[in-house]
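Entry 14: structure prediction run for Membrane protein. Input pasted below.
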Amino acid sequence: MKKDLLYVGIGYFAFGVILMLFGIFGPSFGYESFLWGMVGGCIVPGIMMISKYIYWSRPENKEKYETKLKNEEINRNDERKVMLRDKSGRITYVISLCALFIITFVFALLKVDAFVIVTLWILLIFMYVCGVVVFNILNKKL
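Run finished. Output tokens:
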């Protein structure tokens, strides 16, 4: 098991504890719910990473870990699964573009603030342009 997972887990946990101490002893401000969300979002993954490292580093789990790594390597390089991941990413991209377009149109009909509608249109255009740019870059590389 790589020590990187342990170090990242300790970093997440420590940052979460620092944020928690700031939330408890720090000054009161308007974004406290955001701060407490960040506390949970740092402490829980940190604990999970540390516990994964401890679990997979035990000698009795060494063989299971090697099998797990071997299966992950096979799945990562399997041509069929690579094609399925690419296809599912493309389908998800198209669905999200359509959903964003529909949501923007519905918000326009409901007379939601113009700022929200313009932001959604900018996001829609950004997603489309990113898709085209990434396609062209990959097309040149391959």
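Notes: The two ends are 34 Å apart (CA to CA). Will compare against the previous run tomorrow.
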